[in-house]
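Key result, reporting period 2: structure in, sequence out.
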């Protein structure tokens, strides 16, 4: 949770002590291990809760060398430390300078980012310590490292997730921490959970693949084996400090229970409601076992999910308001995970089997999670972002993607509160459909990026920048259009008819693709490659015979195998499970299961690469047919239809003749019966 000003943080702490019923306006973290995701990815992230209707800036900190003796100095407190001789390139999502008293020289509250080595961070979720821990090891508020600068300091130096954890540990050992926080750090191989529990004490654990977690401003780390140095990193005196001061709590095996030792027993009502909502979202039966007022002895950092979650489900967790449950924020007013103080929401998706440069995909949504669209970024490679993310104004500015989503959220929230009308229902449905479309297109984008990376890292970086700008520009115009229509709807003051975005009615969805190079390459049907496949040539055209042929192969003669992008038939991208590709230029062998779905007639196959494309016409015929029928434009949908189109050739001459005669006849009838102008 961001502490905008030190005085605000102090006031909040005072209020917190005197009233545990106060909603804690804080961030919520999430973790989903790969065993509980439908696609085998690991997910972690959080919402950044701070102010209503505010703006963040998504950008890049360039790599740079620092002269000997350079010092990093915080502009929030007196924390200072020597700069390394070199800092890496990394992304950030920082505060608007005007919201941080003009701190233009730093990334104030950078919160989330990925560096050029693929190290990612989500920081921080503010927590608290108990009175005993405070007396034994008070926070270094005046000169310790804080959330304000922690992400930037770590990303500039670390080369792996473990390296980042150890670097942060070293900083706290030497300089102390100004706040109690939890955070997560990851790379292509692992994700770590790190809790700062007092001025100099901390504990970090490597998160397992078979658990999930929700973290709403509560210290949750339970029993750990401090001697398991492969999976656990702790401060030297984590156990000794508590033991010497008489507040150490152990489990039955003699291990320290971190939460029971260092955390308050009870938390605020706002933390309770979000903990229950998040737990219920991931495992409803487990949530029903929780007390209405939990204790540090009852709460768990890690637990089992009740299903495998889709990417959309993971993203929507940060928008959850407990709908239909006893903690339904729309009815009870309890503080929700998906609240109106979220400045941005983000989820890191760490994909198995991908090279380090592509393994971590950052899903970034601006403003509140309920009415936003997470956009996917290859942030390890990213060196440029859409300038629409860089608006520094404290108030709404037209043309800003950040402010467009922020204002949509504010209007929907305010109207729901004032008019008791959920005018955002169709916006949610539309944005979820748009989000799902992006998710469905991601595998094809990954294949394209793998091809570009195979050619060179420089080309992959160029393409990561290009697609990031393209999809954010498209999405801005969608959000901006919805915002303008929503304003007009509210101004009319009639809420009886639900608001419906016109782009939703028109089914406007993202085009998350690269334009195909226009160079035409030589695509051939090779009889020698189709030996034993029972393919016939009818009037010089390769023809697949239903009930007889076993498949069909084509060769892109001058194609570079490493530049391969995708295969299309009649403009529809074909799922990879329906064909085999092999080297020797680029060989594509369609499977019988796919070819049997095509209608009888002519079809166009198109193979695309980063360097060009090749296309040709083939036919499908029934076993009894002597020649293919007239060209059909019908193809069974096997994946999402993209904007890719193919110029179809070879229509039958007789069909053209009949169509021409029909047109002439129709025109004659119209001339006899009517006199109409032709303008439409």
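The corresponding designed sequence is given below.
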């Amino acid at each position: 949770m961001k502490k905008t000003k030190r005085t605000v943080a102090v006031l909040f702490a005072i209020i917190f002590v005197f009233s545990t019923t106060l909603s804690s306006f804080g961030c919520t973290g999430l973790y989903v291990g790969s065993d509980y995701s439908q696609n085998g990815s690991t997910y972690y992230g959080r919402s950044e809760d701070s102010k209503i209707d505010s703006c963040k800036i998504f950008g890049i900190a360039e790599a740079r060398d620092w002269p000997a003796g350079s010092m990093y100095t915080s502009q929030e407190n007196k924390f200072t430390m020597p700069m390394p001789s070199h800092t890496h390139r990394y992304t950030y999502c920082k505060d608007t300078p005007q919201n941080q008293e003009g701190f233009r020289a730093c990334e104030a509250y950078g919160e989330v980012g990925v560096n050029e080595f693929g190290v990612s961070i989500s920081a921080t979720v503010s927590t608290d310590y108990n009175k005993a821990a405070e007396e034994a090891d008070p926070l270094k508020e005046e000169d310790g490292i804080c959330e304000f600068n922690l992400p930037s300091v770590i990303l500039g130096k670390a080369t792996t997730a473990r390296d980042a954890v150890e670097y942060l540990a070293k900083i706290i050992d030497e300089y102390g921490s100004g706040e109690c926080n939890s955070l997560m750090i990851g790379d292509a191989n692992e994700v770590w959970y790190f809790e700062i529990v007092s001025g100099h004490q901390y504990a970090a654990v490597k998160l397992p693949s078979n658990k999930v977690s929700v973290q709403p401003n509560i210290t949750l780390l339970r029993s750990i084996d401090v001697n398991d140095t492969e999976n656990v990193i702790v401060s030297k005196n984590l156990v000794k400090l508590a033991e010497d001061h008489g507040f150490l709590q152990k489990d039955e095996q003699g291990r320290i229970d971190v939460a029971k030792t260092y955390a308050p027993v009870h938390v605020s009502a706002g933390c309770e409601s979000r903990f229950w909502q998040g737990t219920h979202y991931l495992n409803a039966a487990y949530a029903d076992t929780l007390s209405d007022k939990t204790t540090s002895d009852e709460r768990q950092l890690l637990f089992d999910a009740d299903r495998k979650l889709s990417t959309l489900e993971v993203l929507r967790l940060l928008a959850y308001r407990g709908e239909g449950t006893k903690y339904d924020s729309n009815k009870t007013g309890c503080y929700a995970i998906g609240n109106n103080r979220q400045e941005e929401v983000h989820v890191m998706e760490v994909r198995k089997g991908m090279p380090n440069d592509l393994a971590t995909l950052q899903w970034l949504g601006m403003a509140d999670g309920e009415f936003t669209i997470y956009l996917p970024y290859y942030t390890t490679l990213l060196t440029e972002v859409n300038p629409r993310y860089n608006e520094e104004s404290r108030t709404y500015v037209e043309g800003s993607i950040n402010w467009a989503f922020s204002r949509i959220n504010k209007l929907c929230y305010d109207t729901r509160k004032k008019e008791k009308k959920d005018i955002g229902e169709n916006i949610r449905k539309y944005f979820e459909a748009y989000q799902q479309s992006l998710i469905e297109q991601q595998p094809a984008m990954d294949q394209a990026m793998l091809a570009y990376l195979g050619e060179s890292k420089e080309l992959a970086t160029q393409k990561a920048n290009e697609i990031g700008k393209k999809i954010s520009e498209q999405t801005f115009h969608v959000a901006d259009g919805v915002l303008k229509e929503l304003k007009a709807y509210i101004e009319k003051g009639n809420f009886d008819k639900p608001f419906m975005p016109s782009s939703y009615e028109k089914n406007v969805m993202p085009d998350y693709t690269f334009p195909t190079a226009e160079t035409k390459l030589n695509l051939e049907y090779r009889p020698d490659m189709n030996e034993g496949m029972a393919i016939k040539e009818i009037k010089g055209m390769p023809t697949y015979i239903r009930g007889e042929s076993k498949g069909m192969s084509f060769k892109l003669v001058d194609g570079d195998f490493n530049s391969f992008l995708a295969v299309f038939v009649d403009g529809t991208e074909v799922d990879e499970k329906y064909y085999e590709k092999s080297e020797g230029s680029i060989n594509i062998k369609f499977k019988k299961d796919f070819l049997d779905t095509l209608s009888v007639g002519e079809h166009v196959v198109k193979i695309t690469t980063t360097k060009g494309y090749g296309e040709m016409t083939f036919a499908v015929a029934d076993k009894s047919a002597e020649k293919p029928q007239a060209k059909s434009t019908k193809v069974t949908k096997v994946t999402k239809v993209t904007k890719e189109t193919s110029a179809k050739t070879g229509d039958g001459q007789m069909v053209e003749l009949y169509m021409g005669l029909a047109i002439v006849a129709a025109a004659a009838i119209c001339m006899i019966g009517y006199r109409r102008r032709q303008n439409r």
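The two ends are 58 Å apart (CA to CA). The longest strand covers residues 612-621. This case is discussed further under Risks and Mitigation.
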